[in-house]
């Protein structure tokens, strides 16, 4: 009986350890959004703990949203409150076969403290997908974000609109250049025959 219990325990550990070992944190995060002239990049150990990236990952919902962990901060649905401006966080997550990136929406100025959202089904490490969901951050998360370079208070709505307008104008300019290149290519093909 003792041997059977030891065998079951060893088998359980063998099955569980690769899953736990795979639950890695990010080694870099890049934050962009209103009120920032350039992205804020945070590098280091994202396994949790006192580093800036550890606070962002641990208190910003990264592990719950990536791997489906539950606990304090995990929300079942979008909170019914004013979230404020949205920032985009791009995490780089190292893996055995290279690094993957995943996106998270961050609302550092939400009423009652920061909130984050990660969409379900983002692919990482080739075959894994994010669990996704909403997460309520902590006051120390907002404090760290301000120390890293985010504004101390939510930027005026005008700054948020200017950021969105800049993205839209950039996309529109890209489409115009592509359309012009296609028209030129079309014209060259038809005039050379």
Q: How many discrete structural domains?
A: 2
Helix content percent band: 40-55%
Secondary-structure element pattern, one letter each:
HEEHHEEEEEEEHH
Distance between the termini: 86 Å
Our estimate of the beta-strand percent is 15-25%
Structural class: alpha+beta
| Order of adjacent strands in the largest pleated sheet | 2-1-4-5-6-9-3
Largest sheet: 7 strands, antiparallel
Number of strands: 9
Average per-residue pLDDT, rounded, comes to 82
Helical region count? 5
If you compute it from the alpha carbons, what radius of gyration comes out, rounded to the nearest whole angstrom?
Answer: 22 Å
CATH architecture of the largest domain: Sandwich
Shape: globular
Can you tell me the residue ranges where pLDDT is under 50 for at least 5 consecutive residues? 4-21
CATH class placement of the largest domain:
Mainly Beta
At CATH level 3, the topology of the largest domain is Immunoglobulin-like
Task: Write up what this structure looks like.
The chain is globular and about 70 Å long. It has two domains: 23-154, Immunoglobulin-like (Sandwich), CATH 2.60.40; 156-188. The longest helix is centred in the C-terminal third of the chain and has 35 residues, at 157-191. The strands form two sheets. The chain has a seven-stranded antiparallel sheet. With 193 residues, the protein is α+β, with helices and mostly antiparallel strands. It has helices spanning 2-22, 52-59, 62-67, 139-148, 157-191, and strands at 28-32, 40-43, 74-75, 87-95, 98-107, 115-118, 123-124, 128-129, 133-136. Helix 2 packs antiparallel against helix 4.
């Amino acid at each position: 009986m003792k041997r059977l219990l030891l065998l079951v325990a060893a088998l359980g550990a063998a099955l569980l350890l690769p899953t736990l070992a795979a639950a890695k944190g990010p080694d870099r995060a890049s934050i962009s959004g209103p009120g920032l002239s350039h992205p804020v990049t945070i590098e280091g150990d994202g396994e949790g703990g006192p580093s800036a990236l550890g606070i962002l990952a641990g208190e910003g919902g990264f592990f719950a949203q990536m791997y489906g962990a539950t606990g304090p901060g995990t929300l079942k649905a979008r909170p019914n409150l004013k979230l404020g401006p949205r920032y985009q966080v791009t995490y780089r997550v190292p893996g055995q076969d290279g690094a993957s990136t995943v996106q998270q929406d961050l609302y550092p100025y939400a009423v009652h403290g920061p909130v984050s959202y990660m969409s379900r089904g983002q692919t990482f490490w080739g075959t894994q997908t994010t669990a996704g969901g909403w997460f309520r951050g902590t006051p120390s998360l907002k404090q760290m974000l301000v120390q890293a370079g985010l504004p101390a208070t939510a930027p005026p709505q005008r700054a948020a609109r200017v950021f969105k307008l800049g993205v839209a104008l950039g996309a529109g300019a890209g489409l115009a250049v592509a359309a012009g290149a296609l028209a030129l290519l079309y014209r060259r093909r038809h005039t050379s025959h």
